[in-house]
């Protein structure tokens, strides 16, 4: 990294703070400005993280020549119009997932814009930059559990901030919003394709909208194995987090530090079991859950070397499309075959 990058953050909310708090003090970064529709939020971020400029509107700011990178950390339905403006202004973009609201047409428009862009775009799949996830992925790829047969993943949130989750739910149900991470994890960890997806959706809190606040995706893998993913944001759900990978030779489970009941001081917990020798190993792995600096460094690497992102744009797009198809499967209560899509592109 040879230069200092001028960065603008659009969206001073939950994930915006995870980004800026991990980058504002880095030598290679200068925070040029922060933007939020809520002026108080933008002002607070400017004071906290040393930005000279704050506003409720980004249009003027992104034209400045000292801005190199824009981080888009707003709601999903705003990503596409903001991306369009940033690319037209010649800026590189780190855009939060999901790419767009749950709408295939918008997703395809986003895709085409990125494919034609002269600047770099990285979709923020932060688990790709998490050391524990990377370690477990490498163990699986090196054969630690043999052939992957079954994956179980749960990410339920007991919501304490109905306004924030209500806004997220207007754009995407949790099986899409969180699902893009875990669909990507399945493919990244195993190198397998998802050949069909089934869905179940429920409106637990009775929003009465068309979107489910809880859902389950069931997936068949190209080696005949299976996976499921459950995600919910509801008042009456208990928070739950399960990430388990089961092969014909062993089993691996990830428990993040914040979910550990014992020895959380040691970092994340990786549990590794092999049936043949009856061995059960625990690995403590100190790791930053949201490694936003590592993620931004990936974008800078893309800018400086022309390399693909992590995930590549195609990998992120495919994960999003599978999540959208899974959402359709949940709405129609059926299983959708993806083999045709793999043959003909999404
Ligand atoms: N990668 C992850 O782990 C992760 C975690 C949470 C959220 N997210 C994603 O981040 C995005 C934001 O979610 P959040 O939880 O931070 O929501 P949030 O409500 O905490 O923050 C969003 C902020 O964006 C602002 N905003 C909305 N539209 C805007 C616009 N046009 N211009 C400027 N500001 C605008 C809102 O005022 C709000 O302050 C969503 O796409 C969500 O899926 C990712």
Compute the average pLDDT: 95
Spatially, the strands of the biggest sheet line up as 14-13-12-11-7-10-9-8-15
Order of helices and strands: EHEHEEHEHEHEHHHEEEEEEEHHEH
- The unreliable regions are none
- Report how far the terminal alpha carbons are from each other: 35 Å
Which CATH architecture of the largest domain would you pick? 2-Layer Sandwich
| CATH homology group of the largest domain | Dihydrodipicolinate Reductase, domain 2
How would you sum up this structure, described in words?
The protein has helices at 14-23, 39-49, 76-88, 104-116, 131-141, 162-171, 174-177, 179-190, 292-305, 313-332, 339-344; strands at 5-10, 29-35, 53-55, 69-72, 92-96, 121-124, 148-158, 194-202, 214-221, 226-234, 240-247, 251-255, 268-274, 279-285, 335-337. It has 346 residues and is α/β, with parallel strands linked by helices. The chain folds into 2 domains: 5-126 and 291-308, NAD(P)-binding Rossmann-like Domain (Rossmann fold, 3-Layer(aba) Sandwich), CATH 3.40.50; 128-287 and 322-344, Dihydrodipicolinate Reductase, domain 2 (2-Layer Sandwich). A 9-stranded mixed beta sheet has the order 14-13-12-11-7-10-9-8-15. Strands 3-2-1-4-5-6 form a 6-stranded parallel beta sheet, with helices on both faces. The model has no long low-confidence stretch (mean pLDDT 95).
